[in-house]
Amino acid sequence: MAVKKKVVAKKAVAKKAVAKKTAKKAVTKKAVAKKAVAKKTAKKAVAKKAVAKKAVAKKASVKKSTTKKAAVKRVAKKASVKPTVSGITRLEIAAPLVTPPAPKPVAAPSQNTSGRVVFLVIAGIVILGAIVWSKSSGKDEVSSPTPTPSISQSAEPTQSAAVIASVESPTKFVAIKSGDGLKLRWVGPTVTEGLTGYNVEIRANGVGDWTVIATVPVDQLTQDVVKSSDSGWTQFRVSSVYSDGQVASATVFGIPGEFM
Q1: Considering the entire predicted model, what is its pTM?
Q2: What is the DSSP letter of 171?
Q3: What CA–CA distance (Å, rounded) separates 73 from 170?
């Protein structure tokens, strides 16, 4: 009995081992099948993506080729239109030839016209001579012509004064108060060649023209002026005068009151 139990137990253990092996094999087969299915699905997805990319690339290339063809067609149309337009404008711009008008013949002057002109000129000369003769005959024959001066009576020609190269104005022009007015005093210039004298001038209130109150010789360097009123003021000026007409003025100054 004990031996039978051992044999049964061994059989049961063997059956369990066989069942485990069978279960393991089934599990491995299922895993292998799942892996194969997953690989197939992955391959199909990759293939689908490749096909989609190819389709997109084909569409893009087709669009580019169509746009290029359209651009080429437009350029071809423009090129085909230009020659006809230029040809038309050339035909419109061309101007017709215009023949210049023939010059009109100029009539030659007739001999009658020239003869009339000569006659009128001669007649005018005759009339002018008659007028001159009538005027000369009406003059008083008693009146004697004015005698022309002889060579001895004619005035000698005056020589123009030589131009003075350098002129100079008086210096240190001052006014010194005196009993009835002022004594003007100055220093003569160092350039004395051609110097003829001095002009003493005044101007009331600094406006208007200068008035020459005295012209003194070269050796006189003073001039007395009399005060006539206390109103207003008077400007004074002294100038060097040279033989060629040049004048050089000293510095101008003013004094209250009217002087003469």
Answers
A1: 0.40
A2: E
A3: 103
